[in-house]
Design a protein that fits this description.
Layout (H helix, E strand, L loop, with lengths): L2 H18 L18 H7 L4 E2 L8 E7 L3 E3 L2 E3 L2 E6 L3 E6 L2 H11 L7 H19 L5 E4 L14 H12 L3 E2 L3 E4 L8 H4 L4 E4 L1 H8 L3 E9 L3 H12 L3 E10 L14
Parallel strand pairs: 6-12, 7-8, 7-11, 11-12
Antiparallel strand pairs: 1-6, 2-5, 3-4, 9-10
Bound molecules: zinc ion (ZN).
Length: 263
Amino acid sequence: MDDETVGLVPRMREIAAQTCSLVAPRQCPCGHEGAWLCRRCRTLLGAPPIRVESCCDALQQLTAARIREQLEDGVPLPAGVDHTAVLPVLALGEYTGQLQRIVLAWKNGGMLHLSGTLAPALAPAVTELAAAAGVPHPSLVPVPSRVGARLRRGEDHTAELVRALARTGVGTSLLLRAAPTTAQEGQGARQRRTRRIRVSGRAARRAGQEGASVVIIDDIVTTGSTLRGMRGALTAAGMTVLGAVVIASARVPTPAPIPGRFP
Ligand SMILES: [Zn+2]
């Protein structure tokens, strides 16, 4: 099958699913019948976005190392190393339970139309990153499915999500050609943590020349190596990356301990 034929299969499956729903009851990914997304799952998507970059190993960079305890502005800093993330990442929650079911139904279960529900849920996260940088209308760049080391299924979910996000008015979609530049084999562990990605094409050149401010959009973040690779590629092309917005994160920060209380 050529590329176009491959692309047709999921689309036809989608149309079939939509047609069947006219006679069969609509069902939420959680199993609840009567709606594409039940009220409980809608509430889940309505949660305020959380910062997850501290849980992404590949996004950390060494910022300081101390052999012994040091005082800095009267604050004692313990011996050890400090890590800071290379970019802020916002997620709706942990990739588990209901949220995981929604993502899987959207990606693999022929429910691409959930993009229309996921986009307004992610819009506040885009606005938060844009406001922090003082940018009114950032460009939204999806991580192409191929680069994300996922099976190409003939439809690009993240691109569809970005189009739906642009329709909410939080930014402009910027779809770029992106490809990994080197094989991952034979590299050291440290290098493998970063995927080398290159963006190309006219849209990338123009956005680079204009120094566009961009927010990267992806579905799930695990180690953050793909996000780091995308950030590197976009920065190298001349763009400014404000951060990334994802639906779910493999890990989320545990609540910070309350001072004075011990577990
Ligand atoms: Zn539900």
